[in-house]
Amino acid sequence: MPASPAGIIRAYAIMPPVNILGIETSCDETAASVVADGRRVLSNVVASQVEIHARYGGVVPEVASRQHLLTIVPVIEQAMVSAGVGWRDISAVAVTNGPGLAGSLLVGVNAAKAIAAARRLPLVGVNHLESHVYANWLVEGDPPAFPALCLIVSGGHSDLVLMNGHGQFQRLGRTRDDAAGEAFDKAARILGVGYPGGPAIERAAHRGSASLALPRAWLKGTDDFSFSGLKTGLFHLVRERGIKPGDPAVADAAASFQEAVAEVLVVKTVEAAERLGVRNIVVCGGVAANKLLRRYLIDKSQVPVFIPPLSLCTDNAAMVASCGYYRFQSGRTDDLNLDVVPSLAIGS
Ligand code: KG4
Ligand code: ZN
């Protein structure tokens, strides 16, 4: 007898969730997470190395990869325990294989391969930049609608990317020199406000006003960015005015710098979104944690804006598991020859 519609609906209702174990080690966070059906975070464990690298004022690649080696197994174990799942509940292992630091990526990719081989699980290599975008699928409510314009602003990238569907990315613009996060980190060093630079500049800016003139690179007619002129402008301003770390003027310099970065990112993103007629703007990456940038984007855009909660802006493995889920569902898995690609571009 043919199944009744009610029978079909009941059969779908008892389908077990597709749980993906995500692993992320592209820079200085060792992270593992279990996500159900690409959207429901069952666990999200991040072991940050920030304090270890703080004394050097930046990430030391050798130190980062050695630290990943020490923490990767306990972090994965904790992600499984916190999610309350066993290996039989996992459908696939997703891992960041680029872009990032080669030695760091290798630790995560080899851990994922070992699990895939030992547990006979499918392996899914994930692009770190694409995974940042998927942080916006991990919040309750309707996910972003396509086509969406993605602003990916992290320590290594400032990309404007058109997303036409799951896994369909077309890069429209990128930074020609420093990434937005890199610019924050360098500005923090110039102003002596601490590490990591983004949050340090944000804290310092809170006490100041954006009253100092700094240059903005508009690169009209393109969707590219440039922040190195702004950084050099800050350097000269600090030197000419004799601003020293700890001076009250540091707060005004930090606020002026933050204002310039946020203004360029927001104006260029909103212009591109209107030109392309996208349905949503999707913001992600560590710099998306910046409160001024978040506020300006929401205030200035007519197109609805998605920005992840702060904890999902910086590197984590829940976004990797979500991105991996959509790749897995479209049949794009990898074999055990999966290798790291430190300079992997988005859309490749
Ligand atoms: O995405 P992410 O965690 O790692 C990379 O993939 O690069 O981004 C790290 C970057 C750093 O440059 C950091 O200074 C910046 O994000 N960042 C911020 C803030 N929090 C982190 N920049 C501005 N404001 C923040 N609140
Ligand atoms: Zn990142």
Task: Produce a short descriptive summary.
The protein has 348 residues and is of the alpha/beta class.
Strands of the widest sheet, in order across it, are 3-2-1-4-5
Count of the separate structural domains: 2
Q: Alpha-carbon distance between the termini?
A: 48 Å
Mean pLDDT: 95
Radius of gyration: 21 Å
The main pleated sheet reads as: 5 strands, mixed
Q: Uncertain spans, ≥5 residues at pLDDT below 50?
A: none
List bound small molecules: 5'-O-[(R)-(carboxyoxy)(hydroxy)phosphoryl]adenosine, zinc ion
CATH architecture of the largest domain: 2-Layer Sandwich
SSE order, one letter for each helix or strand: HEEEHHEHEHEEEHHHHEHEHH
Strand count: 10
* Proportion of strand residues: 15-25%
At the fourth level of CATH, the homologous superfamily of the largest domain is ATPase, nucleotide binding domain
Helical content band: 40-55%
CATH class of the largest domain: Alpha Beta
Shape: globular
